[in-house]
Amino acid sequence: KPESILIVYLSRTNNTKVVAEIIQRNVGGKLVALEKKNPYPENYQKIVAQVDRENEKGYLPPLKTNIKDLEKYDIVFIGFPTWDMQMPPPVKTFLKENDLRGKTVIPFNTNAGYGVGQGFDQLRELCSDSKILKGFSVEGGYEKKGVFLAIKGEREAVVEDQVIAWLEEIRLK
Ligand SMILES: Cc1cc2nc3c(=O)[nH]c(=O)nc-3n(C[C@H](O)[C@H](O)[C@H](O)COP(=O)(O)O)c2cc1C
Protein backbone atom coordinates (compact mmCIF):
# COMPACT_ATOMS: atom_id res chain seq x y z
CA LYS A 1 0.00 0.00 0.00
CA PRO A 2 1.39 3.42 -0.85
CA GLU A 3 2.41 5.60 2.06
CA SER A 4 -0.36 7.95 3.02
CA ILE A 5 0.32 11.64 3.33
CA LEU A 6 -1.24 14.32 5.51
CA ILE A 7 -0.52 18.02 4.94
CA VAL A 8 -1.42 20.16 7.96
CA TYR A 9 -0.94 23.90 7.75
CA LEU A 10 -1.69 27.17 9.46
CA SER A 11 -2.22 30.22 7.26
CA ARG A 12 -3.66 33.67 7.82
CA THR A 13 -3.09 35.43 4.49
CA ASN A 14 -2.88 32.23 2.38
CA ASN A 15 0.80 32.15 1.43
CA THR A 16 1.42 28.98 3.43
CA LYS A 17 -1.87 27.60 2.11
CA VAL A 18 -0.67 28.03 -1.47
CA VAL A 19 2.57 26.18 -0.66
CA ALA A 20 0.50 23.41 0.98
CA GLU A 21 -1.58 23.15 -2.20
CA ILE A 22 1.57 23.00 -4.33
CA ILE A 23 2.83 20.12 -2.18
CA GLN A 24 -0.50 18.33 -2.56
CA ARG A 25 -0.48 18.82 -6.34
CA ASN A 26 2.92 17.14 -6.49
CA VAL A 27 2.70 14.31 -3.96
CA GLY A 28 -1.01 13.94 -3.21
CA GLY A 29 -2.33 13.56 0.32
CA LYS A 30 -5.00 15.08 2.51
CA LEU A 31 -4.91 18.83 3.22
CA VAL A 32 -6.02 20.09 6.63
CA ALA A 33 -6.08 23.75 7.68
CA LEU A 34 -5.46 24.28 11.40
CA GLU A 35 -8.18 26.36 12.98
CA LYS A 36 -8.17 27.91 16.41
CA LYS A 37 -11.29 27.66 18.57
CA ASN A 38 -11.34 31.44 19.10
CA PRO A 39 -9.99 33.07 15.94
CA TYR A 40 -7.21 35.63 16.21
CA PRO A 41 -8.08 39.31 15.66
CA GLU A 42 -8.20 40.52 12.05
CA ASN A 43 -6.19 43.58 13.02
CA TYR A 44 -2.46 43.09 12.47
CA GLN A 45 -1.23 45.02 15.55
CA LYS A 46 -3.69 43.13 17.72
CA ILE A 47 -2.67 39.70 16.52
CA VAL A 48 1.02 40.59 16.92
CA ALA A 49 0.40 41.68 20.52
CA GLN A 50 -1.68 38.56 21.29
CA VAL A 51 0.90 36.19 19.80
CA ASP A 52 3.68 37.91 21.79
CA ARG A 53 1.69 37.40 25.00
CA GLU A 54 0.92 33.76 24.18
CA ASN A 55 4.57 33.04 23.43
CA GLU A 56 5.73 34.70 26.65
CA LYS A 57 3.33 32.62 28.73
CA GLY A 58 3.79 29.43 26.74
CA TYR A 59 0.02 29.47 26.23
CA LEU A 60 -1.33 26.79 23.91
CA PRO A 61 -4.57 28.05 22.31
CA PRO A 62 -7.26 25.37 21.94
CA LEU A 63 -7.91 24.19 18.39
CA LYS A 64 -11.15 23.59 16.55
CA THR A 65 -9.35 21.19 14.21
CA ASN A 66 -9.34 17.59 15.34
CA ILE A 67 -7.80 14.91 13.13
CA LYS A 68 -9.44 11.64 14.10
CA ASP A 69 -7.66 9.30 11.70
CA LEU A 70 -4.10 10.46 12.36
CA GLU A 71 -2.84 6.90 12.85
CA LYS A 72 -3.41 6.07 9.19
CA TYR A 73 -0.83 8.59 7.95
CA ASP A 74 2.85 7.71 7.58
CA ILE A 75 4.06 11.09 6.36
CA VAL A 76 2.91 14.39 7.89
CA PHE A 77 3.86 17.75 6.37
CA ILE A 78 3.51 20.63 8.85
CA GLY A 79 3.33 24.14 7.35
CA PHE A 80 3.30 27.45 9.17
CA PRO A 81 4.24 31.11 8.75
CA THR A 82 6.97 32.63 10.91
CA TRP A 83 5.31 34.62 13.69
CA ASP A 84 7.43 36.46 16.23
CA MET A 85 10.45 34.70 14.67
CA GLN A 86 9.09 31.36 15.78
CA MET A 87 6.35 28.73 15.39
CA PRO A 88 2.79 30.09 15.77
CA PRO A 89 1.11 29.07 19.06
CA PRO A 90 -1.65 26.97 17.38
CA VAL A 91 1.02 24.83 15.68
CA LYS A 92 2.60 24.24 19.08
CA THR A 93 -0.83 23.13 20.33
CA PHE A 94 -1.21 20.75 17.40
CA LEU A 95 2.19 19.14 17.96
CA LYS A 96 1.63 18.82 21.72
CA GLU A 97 -1.83 17.29 21.31
CA ASN A 98 -1.09 14.91 18.46
CA ASP A 99 1.32 12.04 18.73
CA LEU A 100 3.44 11.86 15.59
CA ARG A 101 5.93 9.31 16.94
CA GLY A 102 7.18 6.86 14.35
CA LYS A 103 5.97 9.04 11.49
CA THR A 104 8.00 11.00 9.00
CA VAL A 105 7.45 14.72 9.66
CA ILE A 106 8.35 17.39 7.11
CA PRO A 107 8.13 21.10 7.96
CA PHE A 108 7.52 23.98 5.56
CA ASN A 109 7.28 27.71 6.13
CA THR A 110 6.61 31.12 4.65
CA ASN A 111 7.81 34.39 6.16
CA ALA A 112 8.23 38.08 5.42
CA GLY A 113 11.89 37.69 4.46
CA TYR A 114 13.42 37.09 7.89
CA GLY A 115 13.43 33.31 7.62
CA VAL A 116 11.97 30.54 9.73
CA GLY A 117 13.53 31.77 13.00
CA GLN A 118 13.27 29.10 15.71
CA GLY A 119 10.36 27.37 13.97
CA PHE A 120 12.04 24.24 12.63
CA ASP A 121 14.11 23.79 15.81
CA GLN A 122 10.90 23.96 17.86
CA LEU A 123 9.33 21.36 15.57
CA ARG A 124 12.32 19.07 16.10
CA GLU A 125 11.90 19.41 19.87
CA LEU A 126 8.15 18.80 19.77
CA CYS A 127 8.50 15.76 17.47
CA SER A 128 11.49 14.11 19.11
CA ASP A 129 10.29 10.59 18.27
CA SER A 130 9.56 11.31 14.62
CA LYS A 131 11.82 11.12 11.62
CA ILE A 132 12.21 14.75 10.53
CA LEU A 133 13.17 15.49 6.95
CA LYS A 134 14.75 18.69 5.64
CA GLY A 135 12.24 21.54 5.67
CA PHE A 136 11.36 24.14 3.04
CA SER A 137 11.14 27.86 3.77
CA VAL A 138 10.28 30.63 1.34
CA GLU A 139 9.44 34.31 1.42
CA GLY A 140 5.70 34.92 1.43
CA GLY A 141 3.75 38.06 2.35
CA TYR A 142 4.60 41.06 4.50
CA GLU A 143 1.36 42.00 6.20
CA LYS A 144 2.97 44.81 8.20
CA LYS A 145 3.68 46.53 4.87
CA GLY A 146 0.30 45.68 3.35
CA VAL A 147 1.54 42.71 1.31
CA PHE A 148 -0.96 39.90 1.86
CA LEU A 149 -0.90 37.00 -0.62
CA ALA A 150 2.42 37.27 -2.47
CA ILE A 151 2.73 33.68 -3.75
CA LYS A 152 0.49 34.00 -6.79
CA GLY A 153 0.84 34.33 -10.55
CA GLU A 154 4.43 34.17 -11.82
CA ARG A 155 5.79 34.09 -8.29
CA GLU A 156 3.69 30.99 -7.58
CA ALA A 157 5.26 29.26 -10.60
CA VAL A 158 8.75 30.11 -9.29
CA VAL A 159 7.87 28.80 -5.83
CA GLU A 160 6.39 25.64 -7.35
CA ASP A 161 9.73 24.92 -9.09
CA GLN A 162 11.52 25.40 -5.74
CA VAL A 163 9.06 23.10 -3.97
CA ILE A 164 9.52 20.42 -6.65
CA ALA A 165 13.33 20.61 -6.34
CA TRP A 166 13.00 20.22 -2.55
CA LEU A 167 10.56 17.29 -2.85
CA GLU A 168 13.02 15.58 -5.20
CA GLU A 169 15.89 16.24 -2.78
CA ILE A 170 14.01 14.58 0.09
CA ARG A 171 12.93 11.82 -2.31
CA LEU A 172 9.21 12.34 -2.02
CA LYS A 173 9.01 12.93 -5.76
C1 LIG B 1 1.43 37.84 13.99
C2 LIG B 1 2.44 37.83 12.89
C3 LIG B 1 3.78 37.82 13.18
C4 LIG B 1 4.73 37.76 12.16
N1 LIG B 1 6.04 37.71 12.51
C5 LIG B 1 6.97 37.57 11.52
C6 LIG B 1 8.35 37.42 11.85
O1 LIG B 1 8.74 37.43 13.03
N2 LIG B 1 9.24 37.27 10.83
C7 LIG B 1 8.85 37.23 9.51
O2 LIG B 1 9.69 37.07 8.62
N3 LIG B 1 7.54 37.36 9.18
C8 LIG B 1 6.60 37.52 10.15
N4 LIG B 1 5.27 37.63 9.81
C9 LIG B 1 4.90 37.60 8.38
C10 LIG B 1 4.46 36.22 7.90
O3 LIG B 1 5.35 35.19 8.31
C11 LIG B 1 4.38 36.17 6.37
O4 LIG B 1 3.58 37.20 5.90
C12 LIG B 1 3.83 34.83 5.90
O5 LIG B 1 4.04 34.66 4.51
C13 LIG B 1 2.35 34.71 6.22
O6 LIG B 1 1.88 33.43 5.87
P1 LIG B 1 0.32 33.19 5.56
O7 LIG B 1 -0.01 34.05 4.37
O8 LIG B 1 0.24 31.73 5.28
O9 LIG B 1 -0.44 33.59 6.77
C14 LIG B 1 4.32 37.72 10.80
C15 LIG B 1 2.95 37.75 10.52
C16 LIG B 1 2.02 37.80 11.52
C17 LIG B 1 0.56 37.82 11.18
TrEMBL record:
Q: Which stretches make up the Flavodoxin-like domain?
A: 5-171
Recite the UniProt keywords alphabetically: Signal
Give yes or no: UniProt keyword Signal. yes
What the entry lists under InterPro entries is as follows:
Flavodoxin/NO_synth, Flavoprotein-like_sf
Recorded GO molecular functions are:
FMN binding
**Is tRNA-binding tagged as a keyword?**
no
State the name under which the record lists this protein.
Flavodoxin
